[in-house]
Design brief:
It contains ten helices and five strands. By secondary structure, it is mainly alpha-helical. A three-stranded antiparallel sheet has the order 1-2-3. A hairpin with an 8-residue loop joins strand 1 and strand 2. Helix 1 runs antiparallel to helix 2, helix 3 packs antiparallel against helix 4 and helix 4 crosses helix 5. The radius of gyration is 19 Å and the shape is globular.
């Protein structure tokens, strides 16, 4: 898939005020990003962005030395993918384990290795550092910065699964960020979004949990209500919504 780079505002951003000293977020649809994030890079493959990808738009970071991608391992990746599809998760992990430990790492190899560990018997926790390594590598590839969000669209599952591991570790802000990147990737691929309604529901419900724990009450309400709007049968968000103070009535005119 050819790399696609979009820089600028994505749709209309609705600013929701922070509470107390908490970070101020901006929301659009299923995403919530801190307000400093106003440039969005969508990349359609697993390759590093190049200086020429920024021609005609303001680069958010100083130009960097070209990144030499790792040697790809298409045979190992294909065999691991088949084993994963068949539910042979331990075998799927073993098929790419050696390649995953090479430096520099290949994102596609790391993704195969991490997702197999995530689903394997008693290896879920082992996937955590692999997913961290994968997403950190993609952030370098995509020139992630305080002003820029980089979303590698083929890795929507990786953003989501890293977020779930961060939820387990109570890293609420980090989890919310990766949930938002997963949601942004889904939104950029309408066909994938239509086929993954369950993933969308989980993103929304976990965002509700994140913002409840971040004491961002209006954002908790936003995502909880959005979950029930699109998935009325969802029960996960109801305790979070029930714990919120009732919104103040609008002033009479």
């Amino acid at each position: 898939m050819k790399t696609t780079l979009l820089t600028g505002l994505v749709l209309a951003l609705v600013l929701l005020p922070g509470i107390g000293r908490a970070q101020t977020y901006q929301t659009t649809d299923d995403c919530a990003f801190i307000k400093t994030k106003h440039n969005f890079h969508y990349v359609g493959d697993d390759q590093p962005l190049r200086d020429e990808d920024f021609e005609g738009v303001p680069a958010l970071l100083p130009k960097q030395a070209p990144i030499v991608p790792a040697t790809p391992h298409p045979i190992e990746v294909a065999e691991s993918d088949r084993a994963y599809t068949d539910g042979r998760y331990d075998e799927a992990a073993a098929l790419v384990a050696d390649a995953a430990n090479l430096t520099p790492a290949d994102p596609s190899v790391l993704n195969c290795y991490a997702r197999a560990l995530y689903r394997g018997a008693n290896t879920r926790e082992l996937s955590y550092p692999v997913y961290q390594r994968l997403i950190a590598l993609l952030d370098i590839y995509g020139r992630e910065s305080p002003q820029a969000v980089t979303v590698y669209m083929p890795f929507v599952e990786a953003y989501f699964k890293l977020a779930t591991l961060q939820l387990d570790d109570q890293q609420w802000a980090a989890a919310s960020y990766n949930l938002s990147r997963a949601a942004a990737a889904l939104r950029s691929m309408p066909d994938a979004a239509a086929e993954n309604s369950s993933l969308r529901e989980q993103i929304l419900q976990y965002q509700t949990e994140c913002f409840a724990n971040l004491h961002q009450l209006e954002l908790c309400r936003y995502f909880g209500q959005r979950t029930l709007k699109f998935f009325p049968g969802n029960r996960y968000v109801k305790p979070y919504l029930a714990a919120l103070p009732k919104p103040k009535p609008a002033p009479r005119r």
